[in-house]
Design a protein that fits this description.
single chain, 396 residues, alpha/beta, TIM Barrel, four-stranded parallel sheet, 15 strands, 40% helix, binds ligand V47
Length: 396
């Protein structure tokens, strides 16, 4: 992404004054922050907002990501995860990366409910408070599979929070349910079965040009907000994401953020739930149809996390998902506006920065706490709804 024009340090004085006074930043302010070489002033501004909200508290969670299947009817150019559904159907043991699952030689797989529950049980045994479950838009699995998934996890692990299904998956479920269901009905059925909240995935960049270039065919802005609006009306909390560093411009990023801010204003005034956090996702080109692109640099990552913090004055938490930003940069970002790290993770199939062959990607609690302390933060284990989790033993 190009910074269209350079802005000098002195030029940020009026933006600093606005942030100090708690005033809202405009699209133009966001663009000037993107164009400024003064990453330090930007970091200070973002930290001022972060400290006003959270002091030095820095949140992390003990969680487990479960990706139930990578079969998907979509072909998003940025996504390295999807696989076409095989004509002859998946076979047990055929997928090299998930040999225990039904799959195929191309790396496609789908997990059974028993396998998902087993992973949830393992997570609880290791202290997890949350499972984060998402997958591709599977062409064959019936609606009952998803309801069964939530119900079976809740029965096996009653205290575990189920954060599952992006807005795009929820719309897919409303289309495959027989008889067809509205988004509201889908959310109500899933909540009855144990769903606790929605993750923020699938938002990408809210812009028609970017949509047509990078994820044509996928539910766009209107559908994404419709699902989150309905969830918030029903009292279901959710998160929001922005996938940055592919074909979008700085202005498209800033306008995306303003749309999230406008929705949050509406939710605070009219609904019983809202966005808990924003998760800026740094594009990883490897293995995607955009593999020729460089992806964001470290400075672009830091700048974006900080800009998200100062633009979104009404969303409590900014989360660095270290899988995307790397643990090292995620740690640095704790002094550039970020107050939350996701998480222990353990396994993640959608993207991987380094090393092939295994989807094991884990940070231990000790390591997360050490990263936070070294950055001058006070580590706080939180649950999905950002309530502190009582510590059973003296944590380091
Ligand atoms: O929706 C796909 C993105 C998302 C790539 O809500 C990619 O707490 C980078 O939404 N490079 C899934 N990103 C992840 C997600 C998420 C992660 C952690 C926490 C939360 C939360 C949500 O990953 C997808 C898509 O936007 N994605 N491909 C890629 N190559």
């Amino acid at each position: 992404m190009k910074a269209e024009q350079r802005v000098s340090v002195a030029d940020l004085a009026d933006i600093s004054r606005k942030v100090e006074a708690g005033e809202r930043l405009t699209v133009e302010d966001g663009l000037r922050l993107y164009a400024s070489p003064d990453i330090h002033t930007l970091g200070e501004l973002a930290n001022r907002v972060r400290e006003r909200l959270h002091g030095r508290n820095t949140y992390y969670n003990v969680n487990r990501h479960i990706n139930y299947s990578n079969y998907c009817v979509l072909r998003c150019k940025f996504c390295p995860f999807y696989r076409p559904y095989p004509r002859e159907g998946p076979r047990i043991g055929a997928c090299p990366t998930e040999p225990a699952a039904s799959g195929d030689e191309n790396g496609g797989y789908e997990l059974s409910i028993e396998q998902i529950v087993q992973r949830a049980r393992e997570a609880v045994d290791r202290g997890a408070t949350e499972v984060h479950i998402v997958g591709g838009l599977h062409p064959k699995l019936p609606f009952e599979y998803y309801v069964d998934m939530c119900r079976s996890i809740r029965e096996a692990c009653p205290g575990l929070h189920i954060k599952a299904f992006t807005a795009v998956e929820i719309i897919h479920l409303s289309r495959i349910a027989r008889p067809r269901m509205s988004v509201r009905e889908v959310l109500e059925r899933l909540r009855e079965a144990g769903l606790g909240s929605l993750p923020g995935g699938g938002a990408e960049i809210f812009d028609d040009r970017v949509h047509d270039e990078a994820f044509r065919g996928k539910v766009g802005e209107e559908g994404w907000f419709d699902v989150h609006r309905t969830a918030h009306e029903l009292g279901i909390f959710s998160n929001a994401t922005m996938l940055y560093g592919h074909v979008e411009t700085a202005e498209e990023r800033v306008r995306h953020l303003i749309k999230l801010r406008e929705h949050q204003d509406w939710a605070i005034a009219n609904a019983s739930a809202r966005f808990n956090c924003v998760v800026p996702l740094s594009f990883i080109p490897d293995g995607s149809a955009l593999a020729h692109m460089p992806g964001p640099t470290g400075l672009d990552d830091l700048r974006t996390l900080a800009i998200v913090r100062v633009m979104l004055d009404n969303i409590a938490h900014i989360k660095a998902f270290w899988i995307m930003q790397t643990p090292k940069l995620a740690q640095v970002s704790l002094n550039w506006g970020v107050d939350d790290l996701d998480g222990t993770v353990v396994y993640y199939d959608i993207t991987k920065r380094e090393g092939k062959g295994t989807t094991h990607q884990e940070l231990t609690v000790d390591r997360l706490r050490r990263m936070i302390r070294e950055a001058g933060g006070r580590p706080v284990e939180r649950d999905t709804l950002y309530r502190p989790v009582p510590q059973t033993q003296a944590a380091p």
